[in-house]
Amino acid sequence: MMRDLPRPAKALVGVRVINQLGAYVMAFLAVLAGADLAAAALAVFGVAALVSRWLGGVLLDRFAPRTLVVLGLASTGAALLLLAAAQGSVQVLVAVALVGLAFEIQEPATQEALARVDGRRDDIYGVLGTSLVAAGALGGLLAAVLLPLGARWLAVVDGTTCLLAAAVAMTFLEREPPTKRTQAVPWRPSRQLLRLTTAGTAFACGYLAVLMFMPLMLLQRGAPAWLPGLTLTAAALLAPLTGRLGRRRLNALAHERVLAVGSGVLGVLALVLAAGRAVPLTVAAYLAWAVVDSVLMGRWQAVIADAAPEAERPRWFAFFGSSWGVAQFAVPGLVAVAGAAMPVGAAGFLLTPAFLRRAGPSVVAEEVLEEGGGTGGARGADREQVHDLLVAGGLAPLGVAGAGELLQVDDVVEVVLGEPDDRDRPAERQMPAGGERQDL
């Protein structure tokens, strides 16, 4: 799997895997902060992480991805070491804020760097996702060894792996120029980006509701204390294999269609997790959920990378990535209101296809116009390219090539381009007075 990737992608995946081996301290942040500071620490970290994600996107306008990957990892490592040494509530909260502000800086840079690599983007992002899951499983075993020594040791090791990953990134990542925006106008998210981010937020809520509460649910249903960790490890080991096989079989399908169907399946499995009470059924349903999720890994990033104008891609990644920050805030409250986690997860997944679906041909046309820079920008577009965009965007059913589809799409192409295309219409000539017009 890794051997098939281009060298720049291999280097970046390797950097993130090194980082992920120690990236478990956030799961124990409440333990490290203590019972009295847990709620405040989580809130401070959540707000700071959202700011960090946006900061990473803005800085990509000025700095190359390699620079920000190194900066983000190094600053996160330093902040984690400060957190490990912090004494007293003020120092702990300040250190948590610094960790949060550095935590997401490298994320938009990572996505942008991978978007520049030649190859199928869903495969590249999928390899990154499954590699991080596998590294996280190993990191969980390391956390199990370190936690008895004290939660501060988790921060020390996490900070050390961040600094090591920063050094590897500085050594092996290629130097590339920053992405330069061509327009000096204030940036605002497009209709398409808002739609995708809304769908991504629903998906993230479903994902976190299952992932955060599944271990607790197993214990509540009478599972032995070792079973949640073993189940998570088994899911992490399955992910690379099932993800690779699934992507091979689904390569011909559009990303949004795969995400819509896959989210629906995840929603059904979350309902099984909610309804089932037997421990074996819960474990089996979760492993099935993890297999389906592994097939979807990389699809969200690929959708954004493919849809975003190149000059705006960093902002798109930063804006879309905020969906996970919103979900981190929303999920605990939603679970508290619902009284159970799995119904929240099922609702998030089942709502995702509805948000992914475009409202109709007019919305598709408007999204294409926005991508082309408005009606003026679209007029210079190539007719065949606009036609393909509209078909890929869902205006016509995939795999259908009937005359009705072509006429429907061509009508909207004329709206997008702002002028009819005489090449595709029958030539007309005028008959003498009293005659009728004939098509040649």
Write a short abstract of this structure:
Residues 1-177 form the Major facilitator superfamily (MFS) profile domain. The protein is mainly α and 440 residues long.
By CATH, the topology of the largest domain is Growth Hormone, Chain: A
Distance linking N and C termini: 56 Å
Task: Kindly give the count of domains.
Answer: 3
| Proportion in helices | over 70%
Question: What's the CATH class of the largest domain, please?
Answer: Mainly Alpha
Number of helices: 19
Largest sheet: 2 strands, antiparallel
Mean of the pLDDT scores? 78
Report low-confidence residues grouped into runs of 5 or more: 359-365, 372-383, 391-440
Strand order of the main beta sheet, please?
1-2
- Gyration radius from CA atoms, angstroms: 25 Å
Order of helices and strands: HHHHHHHHHHHHHHHHHHHEE
Q: Supply the CATH superfamily name of the largest domain.
A: MFS general substrate transporter like domains
Going by helix content, strand content and strand pairing, the class is: mainly alpha
**Level-2 CATH architecture of the largest domain:** Up-down Bundle
Protein name: MFS transporter
GO molecular function, one term: transmembrane transporter activity
Keywords: Cell membrane, Membrane, Transmembrane, Transmembrane helix, Transport
Domain Major facilitator superfamily (MFS) profile: 1-177
